């Protein structure tokens, strides 16, 4: 197979409706996950900037742990969960669709 054959296959794949749908779904999902992370991060920053006393407030009377600790740990856990969701979806959906496209075009190019 020559370099020009690879370029031709790549051009065919880029025009394939399945590939275009994959790109559209993947980009939407990436945007959604990015927005969720940024919302969590910026809400935390706004609380730090405008309500720092709330973060310093103890969880209960006489407790040494403040609300800020729970909010920070909660954000880390939420970001880990979002990362896990992204990895799961990328491996189980997007990679499978990508592999199917590549397999179909490789099979087609060897005919």
Structure write-up:
- This protein has 111 residues and is mostly helical.
- The protein has helices spanning 3-15, 17-50, 52-56, 67-109.
- The chain has one domain.
- The chain is built from four helices and no strands.
- Helix 2 packs antiparallel against helix 4.
- The longest helix has 43 residues, at 67-109.
- The two termini are 12 Å apart.
- The mean pLDDT is 89.
Number of continuous helical runs:
4
What general outline do the C-alpha atoms trace?
A: rod-shaped
Beta-strand content: under 5%
Radius of gyration from the alpha-carbon trace, in angstroms: 23 Å
Number of E strands: 0
Q: SSE string, helix = H, strand = E?
A: HHHH
Helix content: over 70%
The end-to-end span amounts to 12 Å
Low-pLDDT parts are none
Write the layout of secondary structure elements.
Blueprint: H1 3-15, H2 17-50, H3 52-56, H4 67-109
Helix pairs in contact: 2-4
Properties at a glance:
111 residues, mainly alpha, 4 helices
Can I get a quick summary?
This protein has 111 residues and is mostly helical. It is built from 4 helices and no strands.
């Amino acid at each position: 197979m020559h370099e020009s054959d690879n370029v031709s296959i790549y051009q065919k794949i880029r025009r394939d409706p399945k590939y275009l749908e994959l790109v559209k779904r993947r980009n939407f999902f990436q945007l959604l996950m990015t927005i969720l992370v940024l919302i969590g991060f910026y809400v935390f920053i706004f609380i730090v900037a405008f309500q720092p006393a709330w973060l310093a407030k103890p969880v209960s009377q006489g407790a040494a742990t403040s609300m800020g600790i729970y909010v920070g740990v909660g954000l880390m856990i939420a970001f880990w969960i979002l990362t896990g969701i992204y990895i799961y979806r990328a491996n189980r959906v997007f990679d499978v669709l990508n592999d199917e496209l590549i397999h179909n075009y490789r099979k087609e190019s060897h005919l």
